[in-house]
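Lab notebook, bench 4. We co-purified these components, and the gel suggests they stay together. Before we commit to crystallization screens, I want a quick structural picture of the whole thing.
Request: model the full complex, all chains together.
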Amino acid sequence: MAEKLAINGGMRLIPEGFIKPWPPIDDVDIKYVVDSLKQTLHAFGPNCREFEKEFASWNGNKFAITTNSGTAALHMAVAACDCGAGDQVIVPAYSWSSSATCVLHHNCIPVFVDIDFDTMNIDTKKIESAITEKTKAIIVVHLHGLAVNMDDVLSIARKYNLKVIEDCCQAHGAEFKGKKVGLWGDCAAFSFNQNKCLCSGEGGMFVTDNEEIYKKALTLWSFGETRTPSEKRDYHAYALGWMYRNNDLTAAFGRAQLTKLDRYLEIQRENASALTEELKGTKGIILPYEPPNHRHNWYNYTIRLIPEEFGWKKQPQIFRNAVMKAIQAEGAKVSVWQNFILPRMTVFQAKNAYGKGCPWSCQYSKPVVYDPDTYVVAQRHTDTHFGMTEPLRAPNNVEVAKMVGKAIKKVLENIDSLDIEKLGTS
Ligand SMILES: Cc1ncc(COP(=O)(O)O)c(C=O)c1O
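Here is the predicted assembly.
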């Protein structure tokens, strides 16, 4: 039976306030943060040190350095892997901008590889053809909480003697073959920003099991003062450094959230299964795929639309935008994660990182061409996807997940009542 969609003036399916915001804040968070305020070291303080130890232990790493963002940790990873001026680093064509700009931060050149449509991760079959004599490292991004097939990546890395950096910013607790991400490559970066599975407001963590890499990462973390805050500072820049340290309040918040992380991840997995169950068999959509040997953390549950199944033959993003707006009007918090594939972003098209063409024009660089039309899979994904984070996060439960599924189905079953052209282009 046809139902009037909320976007056409009907009743919205999910009432205001039904989906709870992320992250839940309880007495544990308040205690940690207030205790931090009550002590006197507010810069890199005791909570930072404890957070490093506790996170390293939670993930199983030997070394951890807490940073003020995931991007800082990524830049430290590029430097710690000895990537220098003009060296090329392989990155997926679809990710957060800083998965690739962290390479530019160290005067290195990103080289993009298309993604695999099913997993949305870098297509490991296409990595080898992107390797040149300039390639120094591969950055794998465990996108949306699904681990990259690390057997494939490590066998290529071994063959060509390349370093492997894991961008785990979205992938806390995700596993490949029963082993957590952040334990596979030479080093890894996690993010703790607002939307991440472990939220401390902003913040990040660099992790590694290699002492030499750990020490190299430390050299740029705090003004190039190669002495750490645990040693006596001499305020001398021994190397080029940045200010990537975390602060005590943020680390206190992160520690509090870490005590609850395993339970939150369990809830996310339960909610994702409930949503999959609700949506299974729905016409015109592709549900996210969890290959065997992978354990998703469901950071972002991403759906792709098949516009042709609804008779839509024009640009797919118009159809997607219209459908997404109608779902949002039903009260389900869904959104497009990225509107641009990375090689299409202006910084790469205009090669305008440091001005005057640098670092691409550096005498140590070899020319690279960024032709966005060659990343057809990443583009198809970008144009047809929408996803969600908050509805599947604690304290939301399977009831919420199912309601979101019902909102999606309500829109798809009543698609004929949508003015796709108008909605999708406005
Ligand atoms: C895949 C990925 N890499 C890197 C980052 C950067 O993390 P941050 O915002 O903490 O710098 C993010 C998130 O913002 C991300 O999603």
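The CA atoms of residues 54 and 254 lie 10 Å apart. Worth comparing against the SEC data before the next meeting. The two ends are 29 Å apart (CA to CA).
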